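Input record (one chain):
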Amino acid sequence: MNTQPPPLRGKDYRIRPLKRGDRDAAFKLLASDGWVVPAGDQELAISWVVQHPEMESFVAHDAAAFSKLFGMITMSHRPQLRLGGRVACIDLFLVSPEHRHKGIGLDLLNQALRRSEALACKRVEIYLPPAGDDRLAFFAENGFVKGNNDLHVRPAPPR
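The corresponding structure, as predicted from the sequence alone:
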């Protein structure tokens, strides 16, 4: 019995939820974008993400190879008083450079947006890099508008 979803019409990839077994491929994909996670932290990190009740994570994988990832999106969601409902935040959006401009990013985004609608989220947020990045135009084309807040980060104290 084939438990894999069929490939999207005319496409050589499938979209499915992130699984713990994706650890090696997921962290390799992240590293290719400059996000290197120490090997000792990977198992716990992927466990948290996969099991967390307020996280949705999806991958695009080769239709012929379940473990060959082309892209990934993660979205957290939580209730927020000032909105009077839930807010979703796209925490990670990544398509490998050799697989960009093939519809993978759009399919990943649409999967996350469908899930945010099912959760009755009032809005979906994403922090994007400064001007000049392809993702700015991509998200604008898909209904995202620039807000007036910038992300400020306080790093955790060294261990």
